[in-house]
Amino acid sequence: MKAVWYERQGAASEVLQYGEMADLQPAPGEVRVRMKVSGVNPVDTKRRLGGRGVMPADRVVPHLDGAGVIDLVGEGVPANRLGQRVWVYEAQGERPFGTAAEAVLVPVDNAVPLPESTSYDEGACLGVPALTAYASVFADGDVAGQTLLVTGGAGAVGRYAIQFAKLNGAVVIATVSSDEKAELALSAGADFVVNYRTECVVARIQDITAGSGVDRIVEVEFGGNLEVSLQVLKPGGVIATYASQAVPEPSIPFYTLAYKNVVVRYILVLLMPAEEKKRAIATITRWLEQGSLKHHIGKRFLLEQTAAAHEAVEQGAIGKVLVDIGD
């Protein structure tokens, strides 16, 4: 089978290789998915660069997300899974082989049936962004009647977080950095959008909330936004954060957090409890079946162009970057 892999960490154009690999055979409890589309996330590029630890094997096929069709099942997997259209999550995780290949092996639970109304492209958008958004919005319970701030509302996680919160009955404020991104956040259902480059975020949020602030924050940049967050978050509020790229080791204002009784919830989808993942997948599937979700597809590439796909993600491409694999 054709695949992309790296045998050392480094720049995409220097370490990613494209070629033939041996076909894979599922072990007990696994399925083989014949890939149609592979999704590229920022974490895939960071792993390749070495920013998320050492390689789990001497050869790594990247990418956690994708969509395709189950064409082989291992021992103990019901035969009726054969031929199912599925979206795949955590294909690579701590395993060496991800979805940047014509086929991938995953535990049966990591291949989720894809509703007929959902395309392979849309299925490949889910995975890391959708599960991260679900955990960020709901880890501390339902949000009906609450006001949520979603920073980076035009990003992959942010757009799903806006939609999930709105579907649960919340009011959503999103921050963005441009008019184009404002339109993306509004199209996802945000009630209010604040351009942090041209507006005072604190003043605007206090105006929107009549001075009461927000109940929860879905946070894409914990360290960089912490000062603002503490000014707009209600006492007893929650910051659910999944990244802190600009300030990776922030100084924590302990007493300010303590006297506001703030919960800081760190979200890492790979460590999300199994029961929470099951709830997330069941809810996301229901919304897919209802046609309630919008997916933002960005640039797309062929499998042999995977290095360019990684570079597009690193350059801040808007929308999920996809790699086409199957017919």
How does this structure look, described?
The structure is a single chain. With 327 residues, this protein is an alpha/beta fold. The protein folds into 2 domains: 2-126 and 295-324, Alpha-Beta Complex (Quinone Oxidoreductase, Chain A, domain 1); 134-270, Medium-chain alcohol dehydrogenases, catalytic domain (Quinone Oxidoreductase, Chain A, domain 1, Alpha-Beta Complex), CATH 3.90.180.10. It is 31% helix and 26% strand. It has 11 helices and 15 strands. The protein has helices spanning 12-15, 42-49, 120-124, 127-138, 156-167, 179-187, 201-208, 222-232, 254-259, 274-290, 306-314, and strands at residues 2-5, 17-20, 30-40, 65-73, 85-88, 103-107, 111-113, 147-151, 171-176, 192-195, 214-219, 233-241, 263-266, 297-302, 320-324. Strands 3, 4, 5, 6, 7, 14 and 15 form a 7-stranded mixed sheet that branches. Helix 8 links the parallel strand 11 and strand 12 (233-241). Helix 4 (127-138) crosses helix 5, helix 4 (127-138) crosses helix 10 and helix 7 (201-208) packs across helix 8. The longest helix has 17 residues, at 274-290. It is globular, with a radius of gyration of 20 Å. The mean pLDDT is 96.
